[in-house]
Amino acid sequence: MATSKARLARGRLAGEIFRPQRAWLAARLPGVLVCVTIGLATTFLSDHYGGPVMLYALLLGMAFHFLSQEGRCVAGVDFAARTILRFGVALLGARITAGQVMQLGLGPVLTVIAGVVLTIAAGRLLARLLGLERELGLLTGGAVAICGASAAMALAAVMPRSGHAERDLILTVVGVTTLSTIAMVTYPLLVTSLELDHAAAGVFLGGTIHDVAQVVGAGYIISPETGDLSTVVKLMRVAMLVPAVLAFSLLFARSASGGQTGRLPMLPGFLVAFVLLVLANSLGLIPAAVTGAASDLSRWCLVTAIAALGIKTSLEKLAVVGWKPVALMVGETLFLAALVLTAVLLLGVGG
């Protein structure tokens, strides 16, 4: 009898201890499950019928916008759009090693660095010329320059949460995903018509196409050698996410403080995790099976986060932005393509 009472008391104590955790989980689980379900559906569509899974997840998520207004799914959708997003970006680090970067040689590395820096600067300038906000120019420039939708979400995570922040992120994801798909089809035709060799073609494709999946698709259309090199060049661009996010953190922290310099802001946790995973992978501490699992999990997290962003998006708000953001992203894409093509043709990068 005494033993039974003691067990009952311990059970009640454990229930009291874990009650906040259960309440936290119960509040977020419905929304997260909705986002995961949308991710599963869009992955099925992409695998069986082709097309970019990110764009499918975004569009299908928009059909469930009503879930973001009120009800049990709101907290989970917000959690997926922010926390799961950052976790997915951090896991991208497991795909990169310092050895992959060193294999490229100096020319492609300098081309990638110049492409990222100058494209972000061009985005800022084009935004000013078009009368758009500075934040949109920087966000789209970073997305075009680095790794498409993944970069857009990572950069947006450290930018100010203004009234237009989510709308700008959705515009950027839709724009760069669409342009990346177009590039996957047209850029192989361009490098073939220019009669670029495998190395030069790999540098051009990996240095210009926005999303990793589209780079892989375009590269292996040309040849296995081009596909391998274009993937490594693309991963070098993904690695540029670290200094870009850090620079954005410093820029907007300074803007928020009225331009005064002071203590450096703390690094975002997901950026620290990204760097640690790159270092661990470079030192061979992560087995190949774990790297593959981390890559798959990262992809699922990003698709889930994109579905959440779609749910939070109002088509009515998107309809009022006009043609200027589209012109901005097209201009940035053409600028990056011209820059890398000049390096390949005139400077012999990759040749």
UniProtKB/TrEMBL annotation:
<feature type="transmembrane region" description="Helical">
    <location>
        <begin position="169"/>
        <end position="190"/>
    </location>
</feature>
<feature type="transmembrane region" description="Helical">
    <location>
        <begin position="104"/>
        <end position="126"/>
    </location>
</feature>
<feature type="transmembrane region" description="Helical">
    <location>
        <begin position="235"/>
        <end position="253"/>
    </location>
</feature>
<keyword id="KW-0472">Membrane</keyword>
<feature type="transmembrane region" description="Helical">
    <location>
        <begin position="265"/>
        <end position="285"/>
    </location>
</feature>
<keyword id="KW-1133">Transmembrane helix</keyword>
<keyword id="KW-0812">Transmembrane</keyword>
<dbReference type="Pfam" id="PF03601">
    <property type="entry name" value="Cons_hypoth698"/>
</dbReference>
<dbReference type="InterPro" id="IPR018383">
    <property type="entry name" value="UPF0324_pro"/>
</dbReference>
<comment type="similarity">
    <text>Belongs to the UPF0324 family.</text>
</comment>
<keyword id="KW-1003">Cell membrane</keyword>
<feature type="transmembrane region" description="Helical">
    <location>
        <begin position="327"/>
        <end position="349"/>
    </location>
</feature>
<feature type="transmembrane region" description="Helical">
    <location>
        <begin position="138"/>
        <end position="157"/>
    </location>
</feature>
<protein>
    <submittedName>
        <fullName>Sulfate exporter family transporter</fullName>
    </submittedName>
</protein>
<feature type="transmembrane region" description="Helical">
    <location>
        <begin position="49"/>
        <end position="67"/>
    </location>
</feature>
<feature type="transmembrane region" description="Helical">
    <location>
        <begin position="21"/>
        <end position="43"/>
    </location>
</feature>
